[in-house]
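Why run this: before we spend reagent on co-expression, it is cheaper to look at a predicted model of the complex and decide which construct boundaries make sense. The entries below are exactly what would go into the expression plan.
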Amino acid sequence: MAVFTQPIVRFIARRLLYSLVVLLGVLVVVFALVHLVPGDPVRIALGTRFTPDAYDALRSASGLDRPIVEQFFGYIGSALTGNLGVSFRNGDPVTVTLLERLPATVSLGLVGIVIALLIALPAGIWSALHEGRVSDAIVRVTSQLGVSIPDFWLGILLIALFATTLGWLPTSGYRPLFEDPAGWLRHIVLPGLTVGLVAAAIMTRYVRAAVLEVASMGYVRTARSKGLTPRVVTFRHTVRNALVPVLTITGIQLATILGGVIVVEVVFAWPGLGRLVYNAVAARDYPVIQGAVLLIAALFLLINLIVDVLYAVVDPRIRLA
Amino acid sequence: MTTIAAETTRVASWRLLLRNPATVVSAVVLGVVVFVAVAANWITPFGVNVVDVPSALRPPSGDHWFGTDELGRDVLSRVLVATQASIGVAVVSVAFAVIVGVTVGIVAGYRGGWVDTVFMRAVDVMFAFPVLLLALAVVAILGPGTTTTILAIGIVYTPIFARVARASTLSVRVEPFVQMSHAMGTGNLYILARHIVPNIAGPLIVQTSLSLAFAILSEAALSFLGLGIQPPRPSLGRMIFDSQGFVTMAWWMAVFPGATIFVIVLAFNLAGDGLRDVLDPKQRTMIEARSKQ
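The model came back. Tokens follow.
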């Protein structure tokens, strides 16, 4: 039990407990989703396919014919064991469908975040180290423009330029990474750029702010005054410490991308979770909507948990606070 | 004394705002946007749904400044009316978020205890859902349409106002003037209205401007997906969606609606940044110190 007296373990245990409480809240919201639909969700989902037999079968299969308390505990229990029900549209198990779609979204999210970091780190650090100069102004204006651009519009413009006009890249579609690596790369460039450029604009501002904040710290002044070279002060004392808050914003951005790529996936016909949710909303396929919302929210919580724990590991002030 | 001090602060705030060219330009752009939002129905050169197939896909010209779409409809007229719709949805949804979020945040921050715990855990749960996903879930429940879009965006942006209002309330409620008012037996409602709300307005104004920018983007995204404002009413997002098949032969169909969203969002973002410089004491001190150097 001595292990629990260590601050880092206590911090992780507290943070884990907090995430579980929020996850429980998320489960309640996701369960409520189908019950908040005005009217009968099964009747709405069946639409023109309605027959009394089909209605009874679907209602029974989805468990909506049981008392609500029983449904609630049944849903929570099933969700925690990985059973998210069956699709209203085709009867496929929701968990299987989600797991099929997950790699496409994760690969797009990771490529997007790598592109964002490749741009935001040098641009943000350069901008902060040249504060008040023309190059700083250029970076700030560009990032402000990037933050304001609708991602789906940027995607369409990129398609028009690089796919339709120049013919360098495909307009849309997806190839699995392990089956066709070259095809995967060609197909992911444009959606990855769309996601990455917008994220880069947001992250550049955070990197710049983090470097500026660290640069104003006492220990940086001390390092400078004891005669260390500007290079050592910049990279060993300023940038290195500024990367700690950048870790947080990278995690938050990755989580945001995973939950926010819906429109980009629709523009590029990318068969990920986002496009699945979009199609499910259009078809009123509530179990799929519930499953996808739950999975994305759980991923969001997990990434935030990992980021917080990493933050506490690299910065002792957090876990001791 | 207090009146003179308050007036001096106000004058200094305006001076700081007007000294920032980006803020001034964004204010002018937003002025034009508001004018368009109010007057769109009177200033459109053509009807938004007037089909003129022989004039389809015409590039920008003296007759049609923004060109025509695949049905010969005037793109400028549609952009103007769509801007009106977009601003209307953004303003009403952010107003909803402000009213609900600020009420929750102030009550949580001022009361503390279990009320604070319950409200803030609920806010944490809402924060676990990515913005567009939560908006889609609301649309899935209520079905697409303008009212649903307003409600969806309003619900999505409520938690951020709750957090900002709570954080500001927590710092203001321990101020001596609030404690003094309490000790004098002043009622809670009076303290909230007279002392708390005016003193937390700064961060909320900044958040409102930034949220309006995000609300415009969210509305455009929902309309792009066909789940926001419904035809025959034009929307900027849907215009971009419809332009996809024509983007190389009729670039104006995609460029003008997209550029309109971009300019409005940029203006709200710049205005938010300018307001933050003036209303955030830390930023303000830095700017004033820099200007004295």
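The longest helix of chain B spans residues 75-111. Chain B has eleven helices and no strands. Bring this page to Monday's planning discussion.
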